[in-house]
Amino acid sequence: QLRIVESGGGLVQPGGSLTLSCTDSTLTLQYYNIAWFRQFPGKEREGVSYISISGSDTKYADSVKGRFTISRDNAKNTVYLQMNSLKPEDTAIYYCAAGLLIREDYEFRVDEYEYWGQGTQVAVSS
After folding, report:
1. Assuming Cys at both sites, which of 16, 19, 112, 116 could form a disulfide with 12, CB separation 3.0 to 4.6 Å?
2. How far apart are CA 79 and CA 53, in angstroms?
3. CB contact at 8 A, 14 and 126
4. Tell me: the pLDDT tens digits for 87-108?
5. Where are the beta strands (DSSP E) in the chain?
6. C-alpha span between 115 and 29 (Å, rounded)
């Protein structure tokens, strides 16, 4: 069973950058498809970015295309989300999720993922 841990959140000014990391203590994250979701207060979680096990397939929400980049280093058992040109509307709790079998076009469906981290807060404010 995965124990996912996210890190890298924090407070940043508009236009700034942050890199989120997702790893797990069982060293099996590398065998899972990974997505980042975010949640605004009072809202449901929404998909931000997705990466397949091999890293060959990535997807992004329209709101972050061109600004965020997802990547993974399976040797380090870690998935990254590089976030550039951050905006105040990116302020949210960001969650890392892992799933063994993710159906095509369902990458941003919450119920496709078996394991979730506790989340890391990202705040974009001047």
Report:
1. 16
2. 10
3. yes
4. 999 999 999 999 999 999 999 9
5. 4-7, 10-12, 18-24, 33-39, 46-51, 58-60, 68-73, 78-83, 92-99, 115-116, 120-124
6. 10
Provide the greatest CA pair distance for the chain: 40
- pLDDT tens digit at each of 126 positions of the chain: 889 999 999 999 999 999 999 999 888 999 999 999 999 999 999 999 999 999 999 999 999 999 999 999 999 999 999 999 999 999 999 999 999 999 999 999 999 999 999 999 999 999
- d(C-alpha 45, C-alpha 48), whole Å: 9
CB neighbours of residue 25 within 10 Å: 11
Tell how far CA 124 is from the center of its chain: 17
In one-letter notation, the amino acid at residue 104 is E
Q: Which residue has the tokens 């892992």?
A: 98
Nearest to residue 15, comparing CAs of 83, 63, 95, 69? 83
**Torsion angles phi and psi, residue 22, rounded to 5:** -135, 125
